[in-house]
Design brief:
By secondary structure, the protein is of the alpha/beta class. Helices cover about 35% and strands about 20% of the residues. Strands 7, 8, 9, 10, 11, 14, 15, 16 and 18 form a 9-stranded mixed β-sheet that branches. The structure holds ligand BES, manganese (II) ion and zinc ion. Belongs to the peptidase M17 family.
Length: about 500
Amino acid sequence: MNISVRRGDAAGQQTPLLVVPIFEGAAPDASLGAEAAAAHARGDVRGKEGETVLLYPASGPERILLVGMGKADSVTAEKVRRLGGTAAKQAAKARAPNATLLLPSTSVAPREAARAAAEGAVLGSYTLTELKARPEDAPEPVALGTLDILLPEGLDEGEAAEGARVGEIAARGENLARTLGNLPGNVATPTYLAGVAERIGGEHGMGVTVLGPAEMETEGMGALLAVARGTDEEPRFIVLEHRGGAEGDRPLVLVGKGLTFDAGGISIKPALGMEEMKFDMCGGAGVLGAMQAIGELGVKANVIGIVPSSENLLGGRAMKPGDIFRAHSGKTIEVVNTDAEGRLILADALSYARRFEPLAVIDAATLTGACVIALGHQATGLMGNDPALVAEVLAAGERTGERCWELPMFDEYREQIRSDYADIKNSGGRPAGAISAGWFLREFVSYPWCHLDVAGTAWGDGKLSYQVKGATGNPTRLFVDWVLARAG
Ligand code: BES
Ligand code: MN
Ligand code: ZN
């Protein structure tokens, strides 16, 4: 999609679809014509949030979509993002090759507003068509080729254009993460993810390192290798290095769980809904999506992306409850539950990250069902060892709409993962399951660190206008936003 920002008002736009935000208690601008005035006068559109009315005016644009935004003083970037999503969904329905969106003039700064509108439009245009035949009688879908963002008087054009550029690229990264998440386990294997990383690295001049089982053995990645024992699918340890900063500058590191299918291992999961465990690599997909965007944006900072990747299946050589393995850090881990495998592969990745002497590390993982019980699908569970970093990530979550909520890491929770036979065990049981998992990871970090449990937010039913059923791409945009904020 080509997004451009230009100054103008709604009057006289020649476009297949003009999208106009409407606020509570304010009539549509008279220049929109008699149809819009009538829709308001008859009460079909009152500006309530989420309300939409499609009009076919006698002159001017082919269609006008009026979109309720709520009260004018309550507009947030998230509401503008949803406006962009609504525009994209309507454009797809109308098979419109281009559309024009009137950016509302509100307390949201033009850069943030244009960024949110662009994100919403790119995310709302997302489809996964690769794996499904189109019914013979269904017409070929029309992709939204161009979105014109119209800027009302008084809003800075340069600021808005820069915002739209960032939003478009970040959202395209997020759409990549969605596709990787939605692809089934037999397609999106560890080897496949490594191939995607090689493509990203090649396109943006990044360093790419991919370790296979033999190199993992040499590295001493006993925890990742323990998980990989149960499957014939080879594991991969993927590292992307974006060197956009000065040579000696310490990097920011993003780590994502790339578990391409989680059957639970010998501690097998119930059959019902197990197909959703193809999404267990969404943290890793978020890292790859973010690295693509970081490369495209040419971010002036050193950023490393790390994705440990394996399947978790059952087999004659699979790890068993009670087995003890030596992790990359040197610590021994008693595996009391083979379904707590995400923390095992992350332990080795977090330990590997030490060699980069990171300024800070954020990991993202579909780590625990307990996090979904705690927060549902409305927020990512966040834990960390550094209050300043935690505050930064919470703020990035607010800005991007990829909201996070901090869970406490009281020392007492650490007791739950004490082992009688090894340095640590991989499950602390059911109480506070998201937090004991966070504590497990914390045993492998020695730098400012923040953990995002995206089990409840990485995929969903697609209720928001800029989402569709399946992978959300979360936390790709949060990653990008945090890196941009750090890069200044
Ligand atoms: N990938 C799952 C977590 C998960 C479950 C994410 C459901 C999203 C939806 C993870 O590997 C897992 O199985 N965790 C266990 C941990 C337990 C054995 C300590 C869990 O949450 O039950
Ligand atoms: Mn599991
Ligand atoms: Zn898992």
